[in-house]
Design a protein that fits this description.
188 residues, globular
């Protein structure tokens, strides 16, 4: 069971989920043009910040690539937000499709929300992000994405099984993700 929990945690990491969500919504909404702008959004919202986390982990500045130490999370989230805002400015200057702008804004909003909670308490970012992606996909892309609503439960189980979060920390990730998903759906 430990191997399954580790696999779920890695496959549904925030970096992977945000990247796939942005790429999928960009491509579905605006074809290749949307896909390429989504690649740019994912670079600034997920891939770049994750590369920074890997470097910080290698240098001993953070505990691990999931930033398990709550006290280390706020600086990481602030750096990721700066990267996201820089990406947003670039997308706006290049005339990116609306869905890519709203997607990146939603990711930044999620970072703000999760960062605010994590300043005081350790909320599950994994569960928050996967809940956002599942709910936003179901709301905006249709009923074919309803099975994705089961993924947050599996990821939450994995986070508790690995001892990275308590059940309460996982459960609080769900409404956080839902808030961001509803904002995405409204402004999309």
């Amino acid at each position: 069971m430990q191997r399954l929990a580790r696999a779920l945690t890695e496959v549904f990491s925030p970096t992977d989920v945000v990247s796939v969500f942005l790429l999928t919504t960009g491509a579905v909404s605006d074809g290749w043009r949307g896909f390429w702008f989504a690649v740019l959004a994912a670079l600034f919202a997920a891939v770049g910040p994750f590369a920074g986390i890997l470097l910080a982990t290698h240098l001993g500045k953070v505990s691990d690539h999931h930033v398990g130490n709550r006290r280390q999370r706020l600086p990481v989230l602030l750096a990721a937000m700066v990267s996201g805002v820089l990406g947003l400015v670039i997308l706006l200057l290049l005339g990116a499709p609306h869905v890519c702008i709203v997607g990146l804004l939603s990711v930044i909003f999620g970072m703000i929300l999760v960062g605010a909670v994590n300043a005081f308490w350790k909320l599950s970012v994994h569960v928050s992000v996967v809940t956002f992606a599942a709910v936003a996909s179901a709301l905006t892309l249709g009923a074919g994405f309803l099975p994705a609503l089961l993924i947050p439960a599996a990821v939450g189980w994995s986070r508790v099984k690995l001892g990275d979060h308590t059940t309460a920390q996982v459960l609080v990730g769900i409404p956080a993700g839902c808030i961001v998903a509803v904002a995405y759906a409204v402004f999309r």
